[in-house]
Specification:
Length: 216
């Protein structure tokens, strides 16, 4: 298996011992993944600005925000000021995706487009040309700890082809239900980055679990 970039989702961290979990991720992982939920775009609310700020301050590796919210553009400047380096917005939440992606990049951050399981990768043919990454949701967004949806592997492979043709620099990130059991097929299909919440923080040895997902 190739070396995968691993982004633990802090949604599954122990919030009563957050400093410990941030330090663990700093020590082993590649990116810190923050799931921002508004209770409108997804049926759940996660965490707000104070926690994002706390995590960014303690982070020694890049922080990415996955915005599962409507009107994500309202928060770009704020997140940049807190130290977030990459932002993904949902295709389904943006009426002006071209403008939204370009705005994130204009602010000096990496820009990603996230798609729900039901959204076809064919719709990304144009935006991949100027996106830094595409985030394929492999569960319906809103909660950690769900089961990987098998047809998403085909979507990764299809997206890989589309990216090779239109912008080989664009990375593929897969988010939801990633485990040591399915990382092989996800990597083989063409993913570069995986998000993992329960597979990391639910493990007996989270550092070892991260290494296993990285393939090192
Ligand atoms: C789901 C989130 C995911 C999730 C991943 O809405 O976007 O990042 O927290 O958690 P696991 O790895 O437990 O599926
Ligand atoms: Zn996420």
């Amino acid at each position: 298996m190739k070396r995968m970039i691993v982004a633990p989702s802090m949604l599954a961290a122990d919030f009563a011992n957050l400093a410990k979990d941030i330090d663990l991720v700093n020590a082993y992982a590649d990116i810190i993944h923050l799931d921002i939920m508004d209770g409108v775009f997804v049926p759940n609310i996660s965490y707000g600005t104070p926690l994002v700020e706390t995590i960014c301050k303690r982070a020694t590796i890049p922080v990415e925000a996955h915005l599962m919210i409507v009107e994500p553009q309202k928060f770009f400047e704020l997140y940049r000021s807190l130290g977030v380096g990459s932002i993904s917005v949902h295709y389904e939440a943006c009426n002006h995706l071209d403008r939204t992606i370009k705005r994130i990049k204009e602010l000096g951050m990496k820009a990603g487009v996230a798609i729900n399981p039901h959204t076809s990768v064919k719709l990304l043919e144009d935006v991949v040309r100027f996106s830094d990454y595409i985030l394929i949701m492999s569960v319906n967004p809103g909660y950690g700890g769900q089961k990987y949806i098998p047809y998403c592997t085909e979507k990764i492979a299809e997206l890989k082809k589309l990216i090779e043709k239109n912008n080989p620099d664009c990375l593929i990130e897969v988010d939801g239900g990633v485990t040591a059991g399915n990382i092989g097929e996800i990597a083989d299909a063409g993913a570069d980055v995986v998000v993992a919440g329960s597979a990391v923080f639910g493990a007996e040895d989270p550092g070892k679990a991260i290494k296993k997902l990285q393939g090192v």
